[in-house]
Structure formats: C-alpha cells, structure tokens
Amino acid sequence: MANQEQLKLIKVGVDPWNAWRKANPSNRVDLSGGNFSKMELSGVDLAGANLQDVNFNHADLSGAILSGANLTESSLLETNLTGANLENANVSDADLLRAILIQANLERAHLAKTDLTGANLTKANLTEANLHLANLQGAKLTEANLEGCKLREANLDQADLAGANLGRADLAQANLKQANLLGANVEKASVIQVDFQEANLQTLANMTLLQLSKAKSLRQAQLDPLIYEQLVREYPHIGEQD
User: Fold this and answer.
1) What is the b/e burial string over 86-117, where b = at least 16 CB atoms within 10 angstroms of the residue's CB?
2) Contact 211, 232 (CB under 8 A)
3) pLDDT tens digits for 182-234?
4) Which of 117, 137, 47 is nearest to 77 (CA)?
5) Residue 23 DSSP one-character state
6) 38 pLDDT exceeds 60?
7) Residues in contact with 95: Cβ distance below 8 Å, sequence separation at least 6, in sequence order
8) Cβ(24)–Cβ(45) under 8 Å?
9) What is the pLDDT of residues 129-156, one digit of tens each?
C-alpha cells in the first residue's frame, strides 16, 4: 500500500524529495498506484521504489534513478526517460508506448511482456535484459546494446536495429518482419525460427550461414547477393521459400 506521506512529499518537488532520500537511505519507498502524469521529475531518485501500477504518462523522468525499482503494470505512455537508470528494474507488463529511452540504462532489466511499441531506445543499454514476449513493433533501437538480451518470441516488426549490438542475444521465434538490421552485430545470436520476411539484413556483422539457415523465413529479405547465393547453395531449403 502506498505511503501517503511519501506521495505528498514527491509532489512538492524533486529537490526536497531527493534531499529526504539522502537523509533517509534505509526508508522503503512505496508510491504504488500513484498518479504522476505530466509531472516534472527529471533526476528524481526512485531507486528500489515500489512503483507498481503508477501513472507516469507524459511525465519527464529524464536522468531519473530507477535502478531496482518495481514498475510492473505501470503506465509510461510517451514518458521521457532519456538517460534514466533502470538497471535491474522490473518493468514487466508495463505500458511504455512511444516512450523516450534514448541512452537509458536498462541493463538486466526485466521487461517481459512490456509494450514498447514505437519507443525510442536509440543507444540504450539493454545488456542481458529480459524482453521475452515484449512488443517492440516500430521501436527505434539504432546503435542500442542488446548483447545477451532475451528477445525470445518478441515482436520487432518494423523495428529499426541499424548498428545495434545483438551479440549472444536470444531471438528465437521472434518476429522481425520488415525490421532494419543494417550493419547490426549478430555474433553468436540465436535466430532459430525468426521471421526475417522483408527485413534489411545487409552488411550484418558476424552472421554465419548456419545461423541464417535456422530462420523461419527469409522471404524477400534484403541480403548481400553473394551471401544469399552461397546460402542457397549450402541450404537449398532457403531458396524454396521464394
């Protein structure tokens, strides 16, 4: 249950809130169910806080400290989280539709079943984050670090992953239809049963023919011609998809 005194204090402003947190580092923060829609909370310290079912729609949380926080089932529609620290945060089942997460730290964050449709994760750090069954349709992940990320069964339809690091990522059964992976690093990534239909797979770094042969579909995918010719020679079933 939310702490009513804490709810009142944070609405006074970020500076008094952060001063109170610094003076009371052992106090448990519980703001669950709170409504902070459209609030200016840039740089706020909410590390380890219980923020379950909180409304942060259209709020400014740029540079916020949310490491280890519980944001399950929270609503962050179009929230500004530029440069925010969400390391080890639990953001599962949350709504981050069109959220701005440019250069945010989401290392080891739990984002299973999270809706990140249209979110901007440019240069975000998602190392070893769990995005199982997450919806990243149309999301911008250019130059994002997704090394060791769990993206099994995730929806990345039309996502922009140009220049992203997907080394060791688990993409098994993910949907990457019409996704842009131009110049992405996919070293040792699992692409078993991935749908690459109409995806841009040009100049992929460290992609092996064996990896590509395990994809569910490469129909109309953009591949370097020489790589595609070699792929069809060694794995004839690929050519049968066209």
Assistant:
1) bbbbbbbbbbbbbbbbbbbbbbbbbbbbbbbb
2) no
3) 999 999 999 999 999 999 999 999 999 999 999 999 999 999 999 989 999 99
4) 117
5) H
6) yes
7) 74, 75, 76, 77, 114, 115
8) no
9) 999 999 999 999 999 999 999 999 999 9
Q: Which amino acid is at 159?
A: A
CB 86 within 8 A of CB 109: yes
| CA-wise closest residue to 188 among 168, 210, 161, 211 | 168
**Phi, psi (5° rounding) for residue 165?**
-100, 110
Token pair in block for residue 193: 């049963």
* The token pair that represents 104 in the structure block: 């945010």
Instruction: Quote the DSSP letter at residue 216.
Output: S
Instruction: Please name the residues in contact with 84: beta carbons below 8 A apart, sequence gap of 6 or more.
Output: 61, 62, 63, 64, 65, 66, 101, 104, 105
C-alpha span between 222 and 7 (Å, rounded): 52
Measured between alpha carbons, how far is 197 from 62 in angstroms, rounded to an integer? 36
**Cα 123 versus chain centre, distance:** 11
pTM of the model: 0.96
